[in-house]
Write a structure and sequence with these properties.
With about 350 residues, this protein is of the alpha+beta class. The protein is built from 13 helices and ten strands. The longest helix is centred in the last third of the chain and has 20 residues, at about 325-345.
Amino acid sequence: MDPLDERSKQILYAIIQSYINKPDPVGSRFVTKKYSFGFSPATIRNIMADLEDMGFLSQPHTSAGRVPTDKGYRFYVNSLLGQDRKINTSGIETAFIDNFSRKLDEIKNDITGMFSEVSNTLSSMSNYVGVALPPKPEKSHFTRIDFMKYKSDHVVAIILTDEGVMKHKIIKSDPSLSQDDLNRIAEYLNNEYAGRTIDDIKSVLIGRMKADKMLWDKLISRAITLCEEILSFSESDIYFSGLHDVMNLPDFSDISRIKEISKAIKDKHTILRLLDALSDNEGVQVMIGDENPVTELKNLSIVTSPYKEGDRNIGLIALIGPTRMDYSKAIFMVETVAGCISKTLKG
């Protein structure tokens, strides 16, 4: 059952929008003057008091107005996510989508350049921190692998996936493996496992090799370790932009908060673990303040969206900002940019 009637929703949304525009506590007089609801000032005061009692608003000081709580933001965000969000193709937004899609198409073979552009675009259009996780190799469909002897005891592995993403990895190898041996291993992998995800190959190939290695020739037995190394990827790269812009928001005027957000966002491992847990979810996800499982992020909100290859989620983008975030704009941004990435990778 909806806890709020229409009048209460109107007042709550007005206060949230006013606070997003300017981070000052919102009083009943301000709401009465700015919004033509047709309610008396006394009615607005009573509704605001009720919203505070229900936990949607708080009053920082006795004589001041109210500010939204995490619960208030959550109610507001749920209403946004529940809407049929057809892209508002006004002139500016249409131009942005067209230009951004064209730019991505020009640099789609440069994975670093492409996802740097994504994070830069997200931050510059929002003034929040833009984050982009490139496609995870383990979730990609393996197309081809090649090996090149590098020094006496190292090999360069070049893996091509179906998104056209190429990963290079230098690994330590058995010095006795010649280039001909490496070519044989690559030929075997390409013939047997092209089209499967790297996750599948790891579980099937490594398990099969270990179970049957006594039946395989010596070369393949020695290749077990090589394959384990090749198909094991360290944590993905992660692209950040806009930390300086966020620092300039009034929400972070306190030096201790600046240090807190800086430490949280610069800790790539923490952000990666958090975003990785969301990468299989469908559609836009919003975590607000205390909903974040990471202590250092509990004063921040995160808006994420996966991008796809076909029906499969292969990566994630995000905006990180204060709980006083322009959620409507942030949701539009991540949804639109994720759609552009999916379209580029499909092409």
